[in-house]
From TrEMBL:
Origin species: Chryseobacterium panacisoli
Record has Transcription regulation as a keyword: yes
Keyword terms, alphabetized: DNA-binding, Transcription, Transcription regulation
Keyword DNA-binding listed: yes
Domain HTH araC/xylS-type: from-to ranges: 198-296
Superkingdom of the organism of origin: Bacteria
PROSITE patterns found in the cross-reference section: HTH_ARAC_FAMILY_1, HTH_ARAC_FAMILY_2
Gene Ontology terms, MF aspect: DNA-binding transcription factor activity; sequence-specific DNA binding
Database matches in SUPFAM superfamilies: Homeodomain-like
Entry protein name: Helix-turn-helix transcriptional regulator
Xref: InterPro entries: Homeodomain-like_sf (IPR009057), HTH_AraC (IPR018060), HTH_AraC-typ_CS (IPR018062), PchR_regulatory_protein (IPR053142), Tscrpt_reg_AraC-type_HTH (IPR020449)
Pfam family, one: HTH_18
Amino acid sequence: MAVKMCCMRKSSKSGLLFRSEDIKIIIQEDLCPDQSFKSHMLEGKSSFNLLFLLSDGINLEAHDCGSQFSFKKNQYILHYSPEESIAELWTENQEILKYLQIQINYQYVFNLINPDLNRENAEILENMTHNNFIFLHKETPPDMTVEMHMIVKEILGYTKKGIMQKLFIEAKIIKLLILIFEQFNEKNILESTPKTPEMIRKFIDENYHRNIKAEEIGKYMGMNQSIIRKEFKAQYHTTIAHYISELRMLKARKLITDKEIMIKEIAIECGYEYLQNFTRAFKKKFGVSPESLRNNK
């Protein structure tokens, strides 16, 4: 059995949730935080191990390399083990120890990714075998996303057996791998484009007169829109929407003095499809309507 318990069995909930020729899933949950408890996790030869840390303050010591790690709740690692190895996990200060281990045979992942197909696939497998999916930034393990939480919950709650369970588990593992690759790919994009906020601003400066949104900017730059918003706000201390609005109002203020240009035309020139939206934004910014400001000039 992959998990050995060092306190009374009735005090912990530990067991094999699923096992096939290629995949093994084990849940560990210590229900006796007042007792001394350590868990020994076995990593099989030539296997990838997805470890989801579901309680806080978990310490892990890898016996094969003597390394020790400390995890926060809801972090995870994807680790490749070329040889059979044992890792010891424990918590301090009487904290509950809970984690989920998904062990996948190397050959299964190899067939799934098919590195011979193209260079991208080969790079993914190479990153996996070189354990590049352990730390997201420096020595900080990645945090589980909301989708990862949902998948883990679905795996823990699934009750069917047989082929249905096998297909279900394999589908969920594939989805987890996709989410991990996406999470690390977003990190790599940010690291390779240190001037991302400047690029976003340049795009906005050239296109604010159109009805642009973060989604369009994300597609243009090939980045997730949430990353777009986060990076821009971190650099300029304002949101994309507010920055666009400021540019439009500055332009509107300049154009409003030219009485030969209809206010409706100014609205369109500043990126507003509907006049009422332009009027509302103008009044909110300057305290008066466009007509009132024009008439007072």
